[in-house]
Write a structure and sequence with these properties.
Elements (H helix, E strand, L loop, with lengths): L26 H13 L4 H17 L4 E6 L14 H10 L4 E3 L5 E3 L7 E2 L5 E5 L14 H12 L6 H10 L3 H6 L13 E5 L2 E5 L7 H4 L32 E7 L3 E6 L13 E6 L3 H9 L5 E2 L16 E3 L4 E7 L12 H9 L3 H8 L5 E3 L15 H8 L7 H10 L8 E8 L4 H13 L3 E8 L1 H9 L5 E7 L4 H6 L14 H10 L5 H18 L3 E7 L2 E4 L3 E2 L2 E2 L5 E2 L4 E2 L1
Parallel strand pairs: 1-10, 1-11, 15-16, 15-17
Antiparallel strand pairs: 2-3, 4-5, 5-7, 6-7, 8-9, 9-10, 11-19, 12-19, 13-17, 13-18, 14-18, 20-23, 21-22
Helix pairs in contact: 1-8, 9-12, 11-17, 16-17
């Protein structure tokens, strides 16, 4: 997911957005943040009282509620359209898919009755639904709901490439379907997915996918009903009360204020759901989130100023969530980008001028951020060990070297008499302003003039998708496979490509045909090296495990690496 905090994505909610306002935090803002948190110390008694009240509700049988602070406004709750992490906070609670992921990353049946039946060539997956499962309005969940969802979501076309890329990449006929602008959804179907009866869905793949059941757990693969989710129309998704398949239904939605979910008693696993109401409160100001957490208004604050981590008084309330996210700089070398960024020497100079260690140190968030030189973050497995470790050993990255950066700029025709000038765009939440100001100074030190441009978090990724930038911060969070990070820079995943390279696209197509795991991972390492080291199409900065706060008494939050926290089975002690 794109972290549009970051969008947190980064977002970044950095896919969370993903991968989410008051402005970003500068040095003066950091001081103000420390002051704000200090002022809330006197309110700990109120927070303690709030926890006691919640525990008492639990004991008395009264409804238990959880309130969570998020950093950016919601944009859509349509699972076939949303690519931002903030939307996923709600969608993950509202929709159950065929499978779901556990905290260790393993995949288990959800609406499916068991594991899929897989053909010997790995190209056919047959899934049977559980008996007696229904939508929240009591209507049976059928295999046709899954077939309709895939067909309907593809009608958004190439502009929705972030969600539909894997449909087109793996399902037989889906790519051709995307290209058919005259398709009639009421009558058209393609071989990629079919309902052989009310309880059986068959997926036909054009190439093997080792993590296919993981894909079926979210996004464009989730079930939809034709009487609710019309093609090309998503306004229904923010109107309370429509039927869903998950643990919660939408009770209230003001995209700029909050989203409130109420327990779905028709959910097949409702007896195990312990939280009756979840509120996602929009608070772009990270200091306000920390203060609201201290007073007990929030049970969890998902976007706090990183500067408070080192000195926070109750370290047990700090929440380091495994997110598998990358915070990077997106360089627009495509048609809408500046001529200078089409020169690899300029792109390499921009990267060599950056001291990642100093940036991470200045953010001062302990172990939450780690300098990163490859696009795939730490935490994902490679052939024999962690993918990031393997990649750095196979292709040692170029590190901070400002003198070499100056030489490359001179070769590209830029010096004191002809300085390079570029614009850097970022969104007005999370740590982005701090990072932007440090980048500006580092680039200035090698002779590059950079104009900083800040935009509202709610429109940031729309502008990036449309190629309306020269350089920008970027955040991405994925959980299935290293290839998901690398796929992001194929042209099919970008509405207006900032990275447009035939060789890269072909490599990403060819790698899907490799069956041997070691050969497959080694090829992904080669592709990543081509993207980051050889061509510097993007500049990774650090892993983005965004610091958060959670009440010590709030237990049982279900956290999947690379995804969002799930509160359905939580409780207060």
């Amino acid at each position: 997911m794109k972290k549009k905090i970051l969008s947190a994505a980064l977002a970044a909610a950095m896919c969370m957005s993903l991968l989410s306002g008051c402005g970003g935090q500068s040095t003066s803002a950091t001081t103000a943040a420390a002051k704000t948190v200090a002022q809330t110390e006197a309110k700990t008694e109120a927070a303690s009282k709030a926890e006691t009240t919640e525990a008492a509700k639990k004991e008395s049988g009264e409804p238990v509620s959880v309130t969570v602070g998020v950093a950016q406004q919601f944009t859509t709750l349509d699972p076939g359209l949303s690519s931002e992490t903030v939307n996923r906070f709600a969608i993950a609670h509202m929709y159950a898919g065929l499978y779901k992921k556990l905290e260790d990353g393993s995949v288990v049946p959800d609406l499916a009755a068991g594991d899929p039946e897989i053909s010997e060539d790995g190209l056919t997956y047959t899934v049977t639904l559980k008996d007696g499962i229904t939508w929240s309005d009591g209507e049976p969940i059928t295999s046709e709901n899954f077939v309709y969802a895939v067909n309907r979501n593809l009608t958004y076309g190439a502009e929705n490439g972030f969600l539909t890329d894997k449909l087109a990449r793996y399902l037989e006929g889906a790519e051709e379907y995307l290209a058919d602008t005259d398709v009639d959804l009421d009558t058209f179907s393609f071989a990629g997915v079919e309902a052989t009866d009310d309880k059986t869905i068959v997926y036909h793949l054009k190439t093997p996918c080792a993590f296919f059941t993981g894909l079926l757990s979210s996004g464009a693969w989730l079930p939809l009903r034709s009487d609710i989710a019309e093609p090309g129309f998503s306004e229904w998704s923010v109107e309370p009360g429509y039927p869903v398949t998950g643990a919660y239904v939408l009770d209230y939605c003001n995209e700029n204020e909050k989203v409130v979910l109420k327990k779905n008693d028709a959910f097949y696993d409702a007896d195990k759901v312990t939280v009756d109401e979840i509120t996602f409160q929009v608070m772009p100001d990270m200091d306000a989130q920390a203060a609201a957490f201290k007073t007990g208004e929030l049970d969890a604050a998902l976007a706090i100023n990183a500067s408070i981590v080192a000195t926070y008084e109750n370290q047990n309330e700090l929440w380091n969530r495994p997110q598998q996210s990358v915070y990077s700089i997106n360089l627009n070398s495509g048609e809408t980008g500046p001529e200078a960024l089409k020169d690899v020497n300029v792109r390499r100079a921009l990267s060599l001028a950056i001291n990642r260690d100093e940036i991470v140190k200045a953010i001062n968030a302990g172990d939450f951020y780690t300098p990163l030189y490859g696009y795939v973050p730490h935490g994902m497995m490679g052939a024999e060990k962690e993918f990031r470790t393997e990649g750095d050993e196979m292709y040692p990255p170029e590190t901070y070297d400002p003198e070499k950066a100056k030489e490359l700029l001179k070769e590209a025709g830029y010096d004191e008499s002809n300085p390079l000038s570029l614009k850097y765009k970022y969104s007005n939440n999370s740590i982005h302003a701090d990072v932007a100001q440090m980048l500006e100074q580092m680039w200035k030190a090698v002779g590059i003039n950079v104009e900083l441009e800040v935009v509202e978090s709610g429109v940031f990724y729309d502008q990036i998708d449309q190629g309306d930038f020269e350089m920008s911060r970027y955040g991405l969070m994925c959980s299935n496979d290293p290839s998901e990070f690398l796929n992001q820079w194929t042209r099919s995943m970008q509405p207006i490509p900032a990275v447009s390279d035939d060789a890269y696209d072909q490599m990403m197509t060819d790698v899907t045909k490799i069956v041997d795991r070691t050969e497959y991972m080694n090829k992904l390492h080669e592709i990543e090296n081509y993207l980051v080291n050889e061509n510097v199409f993007v500049i990774p900065l650090f892993d983005f495990n965004e610091p958060a706060l959670k009440k010590e008494s709030l237990k049982g939050v279900y956290m999947v690496p690379g995804d969002v926290p799930v509160y359905s089975y939580a409780h207060f002690e």
